[in-house]
Amino acid sequence: MTSGRTTRWPSGLIDGRRSGDLLLPNYVGGEFVTGGTSFAKVSPVTGETLLHVAEADQATVDAAVTAARAALRGPWGAMGEGERAAVLRRVADELERRFDDLVAAEVADTGKSVAQARTLDIPRGAANFRTFADIITATPTESFTTVTASGGRALNYAVRKPVGVVAIIVPWNLPLLLLTWKVAPALACGNAVVVKPSEETPSSATVLAEVMAAAGVPDGVFNLVHGFGPGSAGEALTRHPGVDAITFTGESATGSAIMRAAADGVKAVSFELGGKNAGLVFADADLDAAVEGSVRSSFTNGGQVCLCTERIYVQRPVFEEFAARLAKRAEELAFGWPSEPATMTMPLISAKHREKVLGHYELARAEGATVLAGGGVPVFGDDRDGGSYVQPTVLTGLGRHARTMREEIFGPVCHIAPFDDEDEAFALANDSEYGLAATVWTRDVGRAHRAGARLEAGLVWVNTWFLRDLRTPFGGVKASGVGREGGTHSLHFYSELTNVCVDLG
Ligand code: NAD
Ligand code: 6OD
């Protein structure tokens, strides 16, 4: 086992300045491996190449899957739930020990603020491991006593077993949070994993491999392959006959491609996909809370959270006031360097994604939208002009058929429109191909519960947004996903149950 690797993260990387030469390796069977081709990781803050990443070829993916299979036959496969939970807790401890490196890695890759990484992304990594260590040791399996035809008794009980080798493919927006959200329950259930982070965010996943080694996770239990999707490590993994199940977070179109690849091997899939989430602001709401909540729900992480509200519907009596206040707050969001404590927004992940988002800003104008705030790019007069920043943007004036109202943009942008009554509000919110999350601002308790029952979304937040209890079900309906993870729902995906029936006579 290679346990001594600790990548040093030059502090300049945080603000998008290259210092030194880093080549991030793959992690296969307990070894950090480079060789073959590599690709550049570009800073979203400055556009400068920060480091290079070893791209896993087919042979590396094969080796990772083989190592994972071998690990299932080794000491890992023989461990009980309590022993695995102890390993998960050591991983959480080690994540906390490497906290500053993880912050540096995450901020370098994404350009998010140090403050956000310190309070949201990195703590959630450790919380995921501790939560699933608790859940795996506290969750019983079923048992039924059956009366047999002869009047005797039979005892049925279910035995929980790992699925086997699980492929984990994740996006770039909340890299460590989304990766550990899947790795922790997969390991809690006794699987071995091969993970592929986004090509845009290779760094915190590489630190996670170092954490696994240092925490004594047996070789082959956690494998990391870097690369792209089609024609690269992502596709190689989803088509691999040695992979038993695939869990994926990303775009709905990518989910379709992965589902086709998984069909040949009849592999189990869990998909957390895109969203076009609605926010509903009723006239009885605490308007201060609704405005501040909508600032968070539309602009957090540069709007690059699958749960962000891109469509906000506001009851007519408060529409004008809400619109003016939200637009003002959008224009006040401070652009700063990631390291500056006052920084409130961040760049988009890449120049390519910025082109997509700016294309949507143009499309909205062409479709007849009125721009209440933003709509362009900020000018800094320094190296950040080479980065991928756009202005937080508030739009209004579009009808339900506009593409801006139907397609996920995944940037700091929302459209606001008025409604008259509750039925209309729920109908507007449900008028989408997607169904991930909805946020409702109201003081009416009955309405809050009706929203939970009537909104076509996997998650409904009332008077809050992105408040997460890791024991709760998480996932989307319609084009927003397949299945649920979270709490015991994760155990359902990451384990197989064998029912044992014993005739007791
Ligand atoms: P993406 O689908 O482009 O990529 C996600 C991952 O899949 C990356 O690692 C990528 O390399 C890989 N990939 C791409 N094509 C592949 C293929 N054919 N086979 C195998 N792997 C492939 O998504 P993105 O642009 O990285 O992330 C943004 C999207 O993710 C948005 O749509 C957002 O809504 C969604 N998302 C959803 C959730 C959720 O919980 N529902 C959470 C975060 C992000
Ligand atoms: O909080 C989580 O567990 C989770 N999966 C969040 C997803 C955010 C999407 O961008």
Q: What's the structural blueprint in terms of helices and strands?
A:
Layout: E1 23-24, E2 26-28, E3 31-33, E4 38-42, E5 49-54, H1 58-72, H2 75-78, H3 81-97, H4 99-110, H5 114-138, E6 143-147, E7 153-162, E8 165-169, H6 175-188, E9 192-196, H7 203-214, E10 222-224, H8 233-238, E11 245-249, H9 252-264, E12 268-272, E13 277-281, H10 287-299, E14 309-315, H11 316-332, H12 351-366, E15 370-373, E16 393-396, H13 403-406, E17 413-419, H14 422-430, E18 434-435, E19 437-441, H15 445-454, E20 459-462, E21 477-478, E22 481-482, H16 487-494, E23 495-503
Parallel strand pairs: 1-5, 8-9, 8-11, 9-10, 11-12, 13-14, 13-19, 14-17, 16-17, 19-20
Antiparallel strand pairs: 2-3, 4-5, 6-7, 7-23, 12-22, 15-16, 18-21
Helix pairs in contact: 3-5, 4-5, 4-7, 5-6, 10-11
(2E,4E)-2-amino-6-oxohexa-2,4-dienoic acid (6OD) is lined by residues 173-174, 178, 181, 305-307, 468, 474.
